[in-house]
Design goal:
Among the domains are: about 70 residues, no CATH class; about 70 residues. Helix content is about 30%, strand content about 30%. It contains 3 helices and 11 strands. α2 packs antiparallel against α3.
Length: about 210
């Protein structure tokens, strides 16, 4: 299963007063700020909550998720019994990395609008190509600065969308406007490197197991 962002909820922190004057009046009032509460499921389907001082991107949410601890095994002088807990953790990491790679592979799609979006309430959009985008499931896209969730039409060039997602504002968009996933090519590359490292460590763990007594 892949990372699933359930909701991102903006909220206002209360104002605070620092100190008082000799006459009892407020000395300084610090205004509240807008923060963002995130509810998600990690790559293994476990609940995850995080809090940000800005509207987070999906890779920031992923980065906030705990990763199963891994250590580089040597396999020297270790028994299979000693290696077993580590091997189990590496197997879990290997499984997570495969799901993680499947997730990020869908986040760098790029196309353009095939027709202008002339209404802020329109829920059907046309794109030039669906290549590089998921063929099923709900996923985010970015048009100009508006985030939308594709909820229908996956695999075709006509998508049903939820507008103004993740705290963005629904807007009109010109024909030919860029439509992308919510991760840049560089972010996807970095994520792939991380997942590949997890897989390499899992392979190292199995090699250590083979030579252990």
């Amino acid at each position: 299963m892949s990372v699933q962002i359930i909701r991102i909820t903006p909220y206002q922190t209360p104002s605070a007063t620092i100190g008082t004057k000799s006459d009892g009046s407020d000395w300084q009032t610090v205004p509240g700020t807008t923060r963002y509460s995130v509810e998600a499921l990690d790559q293994l389907g476990r609940p995850h909550a995080a809090d940000f001082d800005h509207s987070p991107t999906s890779d920031e949410i992923i980065a906030s998720m705990p990763v199963v601890s891994v250590l580089q095994p040597t396999g020297v002088g270790l028994s299979k019994r000693q290696l077993e807990p580590y091997l189990r953790a590496c197997v879990e990491d290997w499984y997570m990395s495969r799901q993680f790679l499947a997730y990020v592979a869908t986040r760098a799609g790029a196309t353009t609008l095939a027709a202008a979006i002339t209404s802020t309430t329109a829920t059907s959009i046309s794109v030039a190509s669906a290549t590089g985008f998921p063929q099923s499931g709900v996923y985010p896209i970015v048009v100009d600065s508006e985030v939308m969730f594709v909820t229908g039409g996956q695999g075709t060039t006509t998508w049903t969308v939820t507008r103004g997602a993740n705290g963005s504002t629904a807007a009109t968009h010109l024909n030919g406007a860029a439509v992308t996933g919510d991760m840049t090519a560089q972010q996807v590359s970095d994520a792939v490197g991380f997942a590949t490292r997890l897989q390499e460590m899992a392979v190292a763990a199995f090699k250590a197991w083979d030579v252990a007594t």
